[in-house]
Amino acid sequence: MEQLRDSIESRLKVVLPEDLGSSLMDGVVLCHLANHIRPRSVASIHVPSPAVPKLSMAKCRRNVENFLDACRKIGVPQEATSAPNPTSPGASETPLLVSVTTQTPPPAWQIWDLIGSSLIHILCLVLLFVAYSWTELT
């Protein structure tokens, strides 16, 4: 459990409360962890606000469901994501969190993404030039 705590704290650069289960209960930290590993894997995270410091159970449940969906997108095996209650890590839930925390974030960009994007931009510029030249001739 301490290794899990250290992994989450070092990745997210946060300090979690002593009771790890209660700090993961609302799913906010879990969703941020998934987004750290694969950006935008959780599109919306319900977070407490100063006006409403405690999330409703429905919002907590939605955060956890979003986290589990993100785990599947990241590549965590289906068997690991079917734990009964991932918000209170015990013996059966710890493998899911360990599996997620051991995933490595993808590189910020891939060379093929850069080349493909550049080619599309060049193609658009050439098409614009041809269209402009054609309109000038007619």
Automatic annotation (TrEMBL):
<dbReference type="Pfam" id="PF00307">
    <property type="entry name" value="CH"/>
</dbReference>
<dbReference type="InterPro" id="IPR036872">
    <property type="entry name" value="CH_dom_sf"/>
</dbReference>
<keyword id="KW-1133">Transmembrane helix</keyword>
<feature type="transmembrane region" description="Helical">
    <location>
        <begin position="111"/>
        <end position="134"/>
    </location>
</feature>
<protein>
    <recommendedName>
        <fullName>Calponin-homology (CH) domain-containing protein</fullName>
    </recommendedName>
</protein>
<keyword id="KW-0472">Membrane</keyword>
<keyword id="KW-0812">Transmembrane</keyword>
<dbReference type="InterPro" id="IPR001715">
    <property type="entry name" value="CH_dom"/>
</dbReference>
<feature type="domain" description="Calponin-homology (CH)">
    <location>
        <begin position="1"/>
        <end position="119"/>
    </location>
</feature>
